[in-house]
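Peptidase A1 domain-containing protein structure dump, as promised
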Amino acid sequence: MPQFLFLPLLFFLFLVDIALGLSFPITQEARHQHLTKRGSELDVINVRDRFYNVNISLGGANFTLGLDTGSSDLWVSGLVPNTSIVHKNASLSYNGGIVSGWTGTSHSPSSLVTDDVRTGIINTAELRLDNITIQDQAYLNADTVRNPIGGADGLFGVGPSSISAIQNQFSSKSSTGDTVLSRIFSENTSLENYFSIALSRSSGAESPGNLLQDDGIGKFTIGEVIPRFEDILKSPQLPVISDQYGSQHWETLLDLNGIIGPDGQRINTSTRINKPQGGAQDRLRVTFDTGYTIPQASFESSSCIGKNEGITSAASERGSRCNICWAHWDNFWTIPCDYELNISFVFAEQVFSIAPLDLTQQGLDSDRKLICAARFQQMNSELIQDQGFGALDVIFGMAFLRNVYLLVHVGTFVKGAAQKTPAYIQLLSTVDRDIAHTDFVNARLNGTDTTASQPALLGQNQTLHSPPIPSSSVPIASAGQPNNGVSEYIPVLPSLTFVIFLGGFYGIFSLGLLL
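structure tokens r here:
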């Protein structure tokens, strides 16, 4: 949940199109190839299922940026030629750090350096997104970037306009600081006011040598849908609810008890938001964020953990550490890597299954032994009541979004949109459960299907409770929540997020969902 004042720090960007709509194929890192473009499209690079980047042109220079539905601003690091200076001061907060700068001077901007900070200046330059050109697009030119992640030079947000820190620096009557989406829809009035995203899956994201079945090329589109997914237009329209705390995102409601466990039974759910608005107490408030590698969800500090020997194990002591691919995590639950779990989520009575490989993350423990941690991560309960964070129970990140095709009609949540239709979200499942199962068998069971003999799961009445975990147990580079913006890719403040990975049946769902 970032913003200039509270912007998410991550690096990712994407883009847009004109009357016919602009589409961007999302290619996979393993494919080192360039596809012949048809119409307006831009290749997007999938970095091992952890980052989704796109190349754009700003001021005549090329940049690789991250795709982020959880923020609304454009920022880059590097020299941008042909830039115009806007005479405005600005401050950015990225996961607790402040990015300070101003325009209208040749002097270096001052900055307040905390944790992981970006300093920069708000400028404008010509933005080219394949066959669409936006003159004088406002952006932050960050002059200091430490540890760029995923090969990205910056971030392009396509969230609601209200969380744009750049836009908020200008008068509501001015278009100077408008977001990219605002400029696109206001200047191309014949466009349908929606964008869509289908994230690709990297065949190399699992252990080396396990070649998984590709699920095709993903895309980001504006004003059109991917031809093979046209049925999404027939999907139920999920209303985008207004965030009662004012930190708006593309958020909607999960169905009542809208989580289906491995036994096919629904799990009781209840929101943790105080005095929830725009929905009943028993429905979870969820948002969709392409900037989160690992989905997050709220749950009570005493979470139900399905504890069956041979099915789940835990880092038994606080302070136990694990080097899961890119971050050190403390105090987490593990799941045997060869245990296949199947869970689904329900929206408008439509069931969306999650591929088993998207439920766990392989990594090495402190003894260099291979383990698997749950990919759905718990959210700090205090954070859920933080009004700057937003009224959210669940953040569905990449691990969820690889299993659906997402369409967001921006409605009036994007400034300047010509169509005043109320904003809504549509989802279409992209999971073939047979292929997902085969991928799991190939990746985790060396091609031999032994899932029929895996131990049975325990019922909720047999579960144990997880003790509260200190806030210092935050992974170094996991998704944290600053105010106004949901995103990952940058270190977080220890006080912001608990990190416990839950294993087993109720463990993986306890993520605040077993309330």
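The CA atoms of residues 258 and 485 lie 25 Å apart.
lmk if u need the other ones
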